Amino acid sequence: MTETKKIDVGEGAAIPSRSDWGLFNAWVISIVGAVGAIIYLLLVHPEPYQRLLVYLGDGIVITFQVTISSIICACAIGLITGLGRVSKNKAINLVASTYVEIIRGIPLLVQLFYIYYALGRFLNVHDLTAAIIAMSVCYGAYMGEVFRAGITAIDKGQTEAARSLGLNGKQTMFMVILPQAWRTILPPVGNEFIALLKDTSLVSILAVSDLLRRGREFSSETFLYFETYTLVALVYLVITLILSKGVSIMEARLSHYVRR
After folding, report:
1. Contact between residue 71 and residue 198 where contact means Cβ atoms under 8 Å apart
2. What whole-number distance in Å separates Cα of residue 204 and Cα of residue 236?
């Protein structure tokens, strides 16, 4: 009987590795093309592209602020959820599983509207805070499944060996299982990080001045829609490609240390 391999497809940019000739060279072509296009536009057509890039600067900062804050919170929520999903306590397992099913069944855009507008009827939530909360809650559910899969991928013999050495359940999980699971967890976490960065474009509907929002403001003032969204798309592309390569480098170094 032949073994069936699991197909893993994510929303983020593919993580390039030199072992995958086609993907790595596609990454090189994409990053060189995107950076080259930006440099060409800035040098050959300084007006309006140089003014536009300066205008987008604040939006890039806000985009990273939302992304980094959300991914930190999402990882914390994901870890708690993942532990709950593998818990033998039925009540804890049920709560974690219910959270995952409900959140994954509601589009992120709806969650953004709900937290900012619906809950805004009872709570005065700042637009940036609402954006971070919605992104964290949404991606926390996906991170929970990533952590669950990473934990369950570790051989049960590791747990038995740790318990035989006198470690309790908490010590076994945090000192033995999770450190080993991180090697499996890192690539999908990196993929979710990149996907989250792209999804931050949705927070512009809450009047958060992210990269896309700043682009919309510029185009509405100048009516240069083609120029604006061309540069916005190129900036997003460069950021996601650089991050995907960063994840690839971390994964390679982690694998190197594991082999040692």
Report:
1. no
2. 15
